[in-house]
């Protein structure tokens, strides 16, 4: 019964306890038995469980017997909390009518609490504030409820107090979902309109779109059409999400959340965000309101073994299906050979993609330092986008370089405002606004995106003892005095190591990088000079001294097992190395720029 369906998401600042609460909801609705219950059930990717964060949004259908005696169908769509994955949050939100906005009772409102709140508000969703982790000794539930009222304008009286850990208050949450979140609209006899909010790739069944039925219905045997490509397929099976499995059903009706198999083989035939309809009775319009995923950070990904190029391409194609925000195109590097320039939503996203490629596809990769996209106006008046720092033309051909800016919001207890402003100044930020909200301060700055890409979040956390939080959005391009710094290893420029920096910082960053490279490049049979240069001018230099002894020399006369161990260690060390000219360069070297700027 459609009126007893409730579709909702859980949104929160990172670590405020979404996944734990989702687990408890699963358990209390008996979706999984206590025996089956394992921590963070919805985080099905191995990587997610290991890192303790949610990367992919996942959906599950639950049944709840409410106090009014009726059984309700809940579709819970879990969302990730990290700022890189805002896109997944917005996709999840398009598929629901309401959200639980979870706020940690010991941390209070944080930057992404606010950002997610606005996202939910834009969708005009019902928002149920949940003050979570009330079991913690440091919990201040009432203060936090008042903060929610003050900062977000949600009445403190509407807050539900709960602990995902102990289960306290979780029943109140379930009752609030029934009482406050509206049943989905949509008519069974209207032309079918289904929103693809996610998809996975299955080796046997091809692309499996995850859909939210907005209008009409869908059943096996239907001929479907994908709106933007006009491609048609026959539906094999439809079904719903049960914990840990895809459960087939006879049909999907309006308001339901489920999956479709239709032997969609070609990657790209059923993209996330697209609308699925029936070929013989199509809907008039696609479902609107999707925020397209736009990569903002680019990095090169290369196989350590050049033979693996095709396998890497296949892996990227498969991964892209499961990760709509990833983009890639072939790239050649003099230093690294054939690989791909990949676009990501942020640094964490880049790291996760690399890790998934290595684990799920068993590839050995070298990644270059992620960089933002620069725009250049050339002296002949033409404009170009720079996705790879090594492509920046020489200064005589450049009229102006533009760098992307973000509006950065930092939310912090007032005692840390001084050091945070200093940090922002160092990052070339300009203050746009500063507002006191109780004992907290909201700082709004306009900052070059490239400046906050690498270490900003870590430094913000460390100078505020973990209390400050941040969120950002892109606000366009501004002209900057930017230069390309080339890095030469053994007198040879290495394109994959080049980076772009503000002219006032180029010297110090160049210095730091050659020093760092001097540390991480292992000694070779000969001395290796490492240099940083702007144009033809060398600005910094370091030397990797020549190797004096063979590693095995130490074992002369020693026992054989030790010798073996050393050889193994050496082999291990060889992995993820790339020969540049005659020099073996390890993965770390390509990421040296990431560790600059730390004190
Ligand atoms: N004491 C207490 N700890 C909790 C509670 N809920 C979650 N935690 C802990 O808080 C940490 C974060 O919880 P998660 O559920 O992973 O948080 P999350 O918001 O899902 O995190 P992301 O998926 O990374 O966004 C974990 O160490 C949990 O054990 C709670 O109600 N009480």
From TrEMBL:
<dbReference type="InterPro" id="IPR000795">
    <property type="entry name" value="T_Tr_GTP-bd_dom"/>
</dbReference>
<keyword id="KW-1003">Cell membrane</keyword>
<dbReference type="InterPro" id="IPR031157">
    <property type="entry name" value="G_TR_CS"/>
</dbReference>
<dbReference type="GO" id="GO:0005525">
    <property type="term" value="F:GTP binding"/>
</dbReference>
<feature type="binding site">
    <location>
        <begin position="132"/>
        <end position="135"/>
    </location>
    <ligand>
        <name>GTP</name>
    </ligand>
</feature>
<dbReference type="GO" id="GO:0045727">
    <property type="term" value="P:positive regulation of translation"/>
</dbReference>
<dbReference type="Pfam" id="PF00009">
    <property type="entry name" value="GTP_EFTU"/>
</dbReference>
<dbReference type="InterPro" id="IPR027417">
    <property type="entry name" value="P-loop_NTPase"/>
</dbReference>
<dbReference type="Pfam" id="PF03144">
    <property type="entry name" value="GTP_EFTU_D2"/>
</dbReference>
<keyword id="KW-0648">Protein biosynthesis</keyword>
<dbReference type="InterPro" id="IPR004161">
    <property type="entry name" value="EFTu-like_2"/>
</dbReference>
<feature type="binding site">
    <location>
        <begin position="15"/>
        <end position="20"/>
    </location>
    <ligand>
        <name>GTP</name>
    </ligand>
</feature>
<dbReference type="GO" id="GO:0043022">
    <property type="term" value="F:ribosome binding"/>
</dbReference>
<keyword id="KW-0342">GTP-binding</keyword>
<protein>
    <recommendedName>
        <fullName>Elongation factor 4</fullName>
        <ecNumber>3.6.5.n1</ecNumber>
    </recommendedName>
</protein>
<keyword id="KW-0472">Membrane</keyword>
<keyword id="KW-0251">Elongation factor</keyword>
<dbReference type="InterPro" id="IPR035654">
    <property type="entry name" value="LepA_IV"/>
</dbReference>
<dbReference type="GO" id="GO:0003746">
    <property type="term" value="F:translation elongation factor activity"/>
</dbReference>
<dbReference type="InterPro" id="IPR000640">
    <property type="entry name" value="EFG_V-like"/>
</dbReference>
<dbReference type="InterPro" id="IPR005225">
    <property type="entry name" value="Small_GTP-bd"/>
</dbReference>
<comment type="function">
    <text>Required for accurate and efficient protein synthesis under certain stress conditions. May act as a fidelity factor of the translation reaction, by catalyzing a one-codon backward translocation of tRNAs on improperly translocated ribosomes. Back-translocation proceeds from a post-translocation (POST) complex to a pre-translocation (PRE) complex, thus giving elongation factor G a second chance to translocate the tRNAs correctly. Binds to ribosomes in a GTP-dependent manner.</text>
</comment>
<dbReference type="Pfam" id="PF00679">
    <property type="entry name" value="EFG_C"/>
</dbReference>
<dbReference type="InterPro" id="IPR038363">
    <property type="entry name" value="LepA_C_sf"/>
</dbReference>
<dbReference type="GO" id="GO:0005886">
    <property type="term" value="C:plasma membrane"/>
</dbReference>
<dbReference type="Pfam" id="PF06421">
    <property type="entry name" value="LepA_C"/>
</dbReference>
<dbReference type="GO" id="GO:0003924">
    <property type="term" value="F:GTPase activity"/>
</dbReference>
<keyword id="KW-0547">Nucleotide-binding</keyword>
<dbReference type="InterPro" id="IPR035647">
    <property type="entry name" value="EFG_III/V"/>
</dbReference>
<keyword id="KW-0378">Hydrolase</keyword>
<dbReference type="InterPro" id="IPR006297">
    <property type="entry name" value="EF-4"/>
</dbReference>
<comment type="similarity">
    <text>Belongs to the TRAFAC class translation factor GTPase superfamily. Classic translation factor GTPase family. LepA subfamily.</text>
</comment>
<dbReference type="Pfam" id="PF14492">
    <property type="entry name" value="EFG_III"/>
</dbReference>
<dbReference type="InterPro" id="IPR041095">
    <property type="entry name" value="EFG_II"/>
</dbReference>
<dbReference type="InterPro" id="IPR013842">
    <property type="entry name" value="LepA_CTD"/>
</dbReference>
<comment type="similarity">
    <text>Belongs to the GTP-binding elongation factor family. LepA subfamily.</text>
</comment>
<feature type="domain" description="Tr-type G">
    <location>
        <begin position="3"/>
        <end position="185"/>
    </location>
</feature>
């Amino acid at each position: 019964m459609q009126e007893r369906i409730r579709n909702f998401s859980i949104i929160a600042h990172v670590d405020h306890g979404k996944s734990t609460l989702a687990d408890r909801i699963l358990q209390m609705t008996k979706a999984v038995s206590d025996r089956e219950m394992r921590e963070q059930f919805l985080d099905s990717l191995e990587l997610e469980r290991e890192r303790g964060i949610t990367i992919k949004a996942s959906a599950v259908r639950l049944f709840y017997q409410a106090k009014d005696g009726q059984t309700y169908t809940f579709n819970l769509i879990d969302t990730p909390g990290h700022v890189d994955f805002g896109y997944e949050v917005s996709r999840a939100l398009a598929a629901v009518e309401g959200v639980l906005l979870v706020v940690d009772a010991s941390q209070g409102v944080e930057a992404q609490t606010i950002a997610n709140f606005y996202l939910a508000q834009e969708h005009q969703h019902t928002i149920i504030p949940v003050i979570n982790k009330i079991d913690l000794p440091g919990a201040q539930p009432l203060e936090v409820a008042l903060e929610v009222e003050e900062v977000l304008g949600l009445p403190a009286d509407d807050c539900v107090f709960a602990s995902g850990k102990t289960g306290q208050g979780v029943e109140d949450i379930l009752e609030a979902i029934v009482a406050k979140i509206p049943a989905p609209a949509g008519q069974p006899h209207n032309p079918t309109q289904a929103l693809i909010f996610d998809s996975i790739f299955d080796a046997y069944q091809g692309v499996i779109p995850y859909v939210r039925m907005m209008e009409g219905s869908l059943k096996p045997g239907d001929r479907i059409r994908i709106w933007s490509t006009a491609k048609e397929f026959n539906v094999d099976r439809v079904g719903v999400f049960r914990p840990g499995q895809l459960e087939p059903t006879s049909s999907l009706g309006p308001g339901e959340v489920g999956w479709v198999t239709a032997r969609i083989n070609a990657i790209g035939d059923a993209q996330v965000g697209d609308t699925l309809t029936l070929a013989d009775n199509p809907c008039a319009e696609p479902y609107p309101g999707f925020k397209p995923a736009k990569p903002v950070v680019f990095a090169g990904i290369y196989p350590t073994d050049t033979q693996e190029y095709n396998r890497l391409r296949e892996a990227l194609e498969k991964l892209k299906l499961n990760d709509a925000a990833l983009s890639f195109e072939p790239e050649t590097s003099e230093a690294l050979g054939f690989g791909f320039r990949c676009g990501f939503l942020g640094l964490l996203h880049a790291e996760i993609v690399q890790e998934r490629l290595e684990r799920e596809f068993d590839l050995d990769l070298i990644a270059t330092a992620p960089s933002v996209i620069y725009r250049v106006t050339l002296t002949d008046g033409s404009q170009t986008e720079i996705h790879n720092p090594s492509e920046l033309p020489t200064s005589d051909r450049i009229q102006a370089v533009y760098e992307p800016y973000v509006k950065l919001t930092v939310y912090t207890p007032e005692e840390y405002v001084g050091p945070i402003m200093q940090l922002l100044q160092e990052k070339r930020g300009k203050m746009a606004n500063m507002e006191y909200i109780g004992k907290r301060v909201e700082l709004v700055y306009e900052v070059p995106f490239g400046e906050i890409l690498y270490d900003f979040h870590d430094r913000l956390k460390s100078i505020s003892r973990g209390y400050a939080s941040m969120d950002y959005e892109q606000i366009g391009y501004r002209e900057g005095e930017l230069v390309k710094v080339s890095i030469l290893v053994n007198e040879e420029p290495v394109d994959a190591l080049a980076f772009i920096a503000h002219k006032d910082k180029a010297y110090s960053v160049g210095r730091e990088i050659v020093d760092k490279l001097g540390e991480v490049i292992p000694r070779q049979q000969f001395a290796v000079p490492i240099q940083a240069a702007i144009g033809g001018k060398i600005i910094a230099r370091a030397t990797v001294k020549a190797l004096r002894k063979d590693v095995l020399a130490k074992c002369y006369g020693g026992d054989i097992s030790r010798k073996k161990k050393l050889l193994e260690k050496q082999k291990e060390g060889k992995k993820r190395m790339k020969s540049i000219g005659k020099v073996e360069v390890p993965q770390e070297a390509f990421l040296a720029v990431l560790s600059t700027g730390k004190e």
